[in-house]
Write a structure and sequence with these properties.
single chain; four-stranded mixed beta sheet; alpha+beta; 40% helix; 16% strand
């Protein structure tokens, strides 16, 4: 939609403006999209963000969020199949997508189309991860039911509790080799996707990520709170542990005006 395109442009501008530290390199962007994304949309995004900054590298990557697997009766029917596939994508499929495998990326930072930095990060977050030897970094957490994961969690942890709640993972940074090299995380993720569990019964990717860092006792995890980040109307000023809700009608108007 036009709103989504405006959000993507705003997201990219926010990363370039607030995460480019001391004229350091601008990291490449991968824009994952579905079949309804047109070449005209891609060209419009490029025309808005590359103009005046030829360093920006943007690739558009097709993903398929369709499935013949039906949601099981009695599960979260407010979460349609496409949304469930998105959750599986950020939990498993992403790391084996040809764009990621062939790109040989060391770290991945997720930003949704309506995610944005709202102030200078003051440090290169990827270098911070590398220097501190961090495997997984997140900004905030939330809670939602994850009953479909209880049995698997009990077997892997001896408990169904997630110490960090569910990760509000529209923003996270992950060390890619951690996913590949952690045997227990590999086993856990395979359990989640076995028999299309995430699609049939719904397991949110934020809860799945929280479980991944909980089952690996050797994972180095960092809850970063000194960056200003927002997702749609959920705002997280620097120093605030969790998100706050601010419904401001002018937000969409300003995003569109600056696209």
């Amino acid at each position: 939609t036009n709103n989504s395109i405006s959000h993507v442009i705003n997201m990219i501008h926010s990363v370039v403006k607030f995460h480019t530290i001391n004229n350091s390199r601008i990291y490449p962007f991968l824009i994952f999209h579905e079949h309804d994304f047109t070449s005209a949309m891609g060209e419009y995004i490029l025309s808005c963000v590359i103009k005046g900054n030829e360093q920006i590298q943007i690739s558009f990557v097709l993903i398929n969020f369709t499935s013949t697997v039906p949601p099981a009766p009695g599960t979260r029917l407010d979460k349609p199949t496409g949304y469930r596939l998105m959750c599986q994508f950020w939990t498993y499929d992403l790391f084996y997508h040809p764009a990621i495998v062939q790109g040989r990326y060391e770290y991945i930072m997720r930003m949704d189309d309506d995610s944005y930095f709202s102030d200078v990060t003051k440090k290169d977050l990827f270098l911070f991860m590398e220097n501190q030897k961090i495997d997984y970094m997140y900004r905030s957490s939330y809670w939602e039911p994850y009953d479909a994961m209880h049995r698997i969690l009990q077997r892997f942890r001896g408990s169904t509790t997630l110490p960090n709640g569910c990760i509000y993972n529209n923003f996270f940074i992950i060390r890619v080799k951690w996913i590949y090299e952690s045997e227990i995380v590999q086993k856990f993720i395979r359990e989640l996707i076995q028999n299309d569990t995430m699609i049939r019964y719904y397991i949110g990717d934020g809860c799945a990520h929280s479980a991944m860092i909980a089952v690996d006792k050797n994972a180095k995890v960092h809850h970063i709170t000194d960056i200003s980040y927002g997702h749609n109307f959920h705002v997280m000023p620097a120093g605030h542990m969790h998100w706050m809700f601010r419904h401001v009608e002018e937000w969409r108007t300003e995003v569109r005006a600056n696209s």
